[in-house]
Amino acid sequence: MRLSNKQLLIRLTACHALLLLLSASVQAATLFEDDFEAPLFDPVTPVPTPNPVLEWQTPFDPVSNVFGMMFGEGDIYTRSLAYKHSGKYSLRLNFAGRNNFCNVCISGSKTFFMKSGENDRTFFQDNAGTDLTAEFPELPDSQMRVYNSTDRWARWQVQSVTGDRLDFVGNAPFQNDLQGDGDFDDGDEIRIVKICNSGDRRSDCNLGINYLREGGGNPVSAAHFPFGGTLARRMYIYVPSETIMPNIGIKLGYAHFKKGGPPKAHFLILMVQRNSSLEVDQLGIAGKYFAKILPIEKNRWYYIEEVFKRESALGASDGTFELYAAPAGADASVPLRVNTGIEYGDLSDISIVGNWQKTNEDAGSMYFDDVAIATSKIGPVPNPSGSYPLAPGEADIQ
After folding, report:
1. Does residue 14 lie within any of the structural domains?
2. Which stretches of the chain drop beneath a pLDDT of 50?
3. Which ranges of the chain would DSSP assign to H, the alpha helix?
4. In the list 79, 145, 180, 271, which could disulfide-bond 249, CB 3.0-4.6 Å?
């Protein structure tokens, strides 16, 4: 049968569209995924890393005390059996973890170092001979506390101050959830924190931001988000009814993009102060948005996925952003928000969970599960097992 020119054109167009679709599916790749069923950072049965391209940062660097995921028993993050979207485990964020360090005041913290040559001491003496009396005004003893950030953030209650020396109640840490050595050694760093008054801004807990890395700890490659490319980040979140959330909000993840200057941040916020709504902030990239997108209720799992589509060429402003979110199991096929006319620039960083802002003392936990990053839209997890409470006597943290 001889085809007309119009029929040939239609068939060629259809074949071209199919080839583009197949090409996109071949090129699409999962960069990171974790359902928390395998132990994190376990030397016996480790999670394969990278997962499969990006990975969590190894937790707690005993030298810097800054870099790496705050993960482990007593810390900000742990694997948990308490609530799960699929399987048996999820990632627990404990707002009072690391000896409640993230509830100290955002300003007024001072740093001092243990005297050279002193080791295994249950007192602290400043290496520079600084008179520490002024750092401890007339306050109840229960508020006179310092952190030994070198010794796994052990928290000490001050009993007396004599010049450059601090002595402590019980000659032992007041709180030592991360199982530090419980003493002071040559060069140990201590942090004396300001006591918060009502309404004071507390720490944003920047150490709680989980920036992902390439294998070997290298920065995220811009090649994962080329011109015309797609990047998606998916997670499930759950907030139990008893949790006291940070009363301003918590960022669920950062994505940093760079175009000729310092990187600009995109982040998705669970804005507690505005009815716990999901809000998008692309300040410096495409604007700032405070529209209430979806209120997040407690005691429910929520599916959340962001899809970034990069501009087609250098200088073009035809990129887009889509946000999909819904209670787990509900229809989430239509984006709740679409932003257009965006020029992103190069991808320079991406995280699972950001920091959080508050003037209250938050407490309790929230949970994350089935997180993933890919170069195409990921979609919901099919047929998850669902969340259930702990059975009597069942341990929460693993």
Report:
1. no
2. 6-10, 12-26, 63, 391-394
3. 5-27, 97-100
4. 271
- What CATH number corresponds to the domain at position 87? 2.60.120
CA distance 195 to 193: 6
What phi, psi does 225 have (nearest 5°)? Answer: -135, 70
pTM: 0.85
How far apart are the C-alpha atoms of 252 and 269, rounded to whole Å? 6
pLDDT digits (tens, 9 = 90+) for 311-368: 999 999 999 999 999 999 999 999 998 999 999 999 999 999 999 999 998 999 999 9
Residue 169 lies in domain: 110-192
**CATH code (residue 163):** 2.40.30
Number of domains in the chain: 2
Is beta strand 123-125 parallel, antiparallel or unpaired with respect to 165-168? antiparallel
d(CA 277, CA 252): 12
The model's pLDDT over 324-339, given as tens digits with 9 standing for 90+, comes to 999 999 999 999 989 9
Kindly state whether residue 82 falls inside one of the protein's structural domains.
Answer: yes
